[in-house]
Amino acid sequence: MPALPAQPSPLDADLAALPGLLDAARDHAAAFLAGLDERAVVPGRAAPEPLPLPRHGSGARAALAAFTERWAPGMSAAAGPRYLGFVTGGVTPAALVGDWLTGAYDQNPNSALDPAGQDLERETAGWLREMFGLSAAHEGAFVSGATMSNTVGLAVAREWLGERLGVCPSDDGAHALGPVRVLSGSPHSSVGKALSMLGLGRRSLVAVPTLPGREAVDPAALEAALRETSGPCVVVANAGTVNTVDFDDLRAVAALRERYDFWLHVDGAFGAFAALSPEHAHLVAGLDLADSVCVDLHKWLNVPYDSAVQFTRRRDLQARVFQNAAAYLGPLGDIPDLVHLTPENSHRMRALAAWFALHAYGSEGHREIVERCVARARDLGRAVEAAPRLRLLAPVRLNVVCLTLAEDPTAQRLAALADKAAPEVFLTPTTLDGTPALRAAFSNWRTTAEDTRRAAAALEAAAAAV
């Protein structure tokens, strides 16, 4: 009896059927995106029971069917117009195309031995530098998010401290620096995390008083703190705080370097996008004076997770920190390969989604997104002010609305309010000046005036029910 022909493996079968599989994935994604408007923003669905690891695979089409049945129903509408928690952008059509092609081309843009990916990243970083009003003295590199952008900036600052003190912390360790002071008014939590990873320690972070009723640092208090600091230090300034999108006076902070020796790092994770709007560009005046800058792109640029950029004036120090010596890599050289500039020895070509977005919509298209989001935040702010059971905790300075209950604003009641509103709108908790609160961050290009009306109605109804 003749032997039956061998069945192709699932992998070989998928390769032969690849165009159809990509069509199926496209159809699934298109259906998901088309349903964002009416999908529960956070479904609140229990996770399915875990399955054992498959021994014999069933192929990509069966995997897609299993995902659709088991996991897709619990996925939030994070890409949708009423997901106002954290600071989360959606994904513009061009950015989605770029991200899909990132997976297909599967580049590791880190080496001049295979240069196209890193050349594209450099061009994209140059476009972003121009968009944020930074000079050619700043050079940029892509990282995974604001936390890593702040970490890289502070790592370069650590090396600068060593330069000023005549030691080399990248070789000898952070202990060679002795005690370090990092001064900031309202630092993001990622700053403390970065200091922990860098060996400087969370206790090196010194809270500087802010202006009355503000999250912006008091320049006079900052000068007093600098006066009390012996030797060089680091100042972390904010271009857009988390709770109220408050901005430090960057020019006033930078001017203090005439009398005090410090590295100026600016955390502009989403506030840097104020530079795109003529009405708000004054908020980031002086950004170019920074020694390093953090900007998160999966926020207001509306590219997929994970994507951010960091800029610095001292690429030489950056390369000293992150240089990677291996026989298969080229020498450091005058223009370091990207492998020598960030913690990652390899990374996906995350710049491609940003390149597509910038090429497709330009600075004017992204200005429109910024101004649309600001308008929607103002709409919700007015609705909160008009709602008897809600209270606005801070002025709507840009794209965040910080609100609480008008009466008995306990953390438990705020959590219950957010939970009841979650099918229609998602907000995240915070505390402002000791008051438990919720914050709505508008950074999604899809959000309309009608979405804001629906969000306000859901919050009012939830406030009446808690």
Automatic annotation (TrEMBL):
Pfam families: Pyridoxal_deC (PF00282). Its cofactor is pyridoxal 5'-phosphate. Coiled coil: none annotated. SUPFAM superfamilies: PLP-dependent transferases. The keyword Protein biosynthesis does not apply. One of its GO terms (biological process) is carboxylic acid metabolic process. One of its GO terms (molecular function) is pyridoxal phosphate binding. Keywords: Decarboxylase, Lyase, Pyridoxal phosphate. The modification N6-(pyridoxal phosphate)lysine is found at residue 299. Transmembrane segments: none annotated. Belongs to the group II decarboxylase family. This is Glutamate or tyrosine decarboxylase.
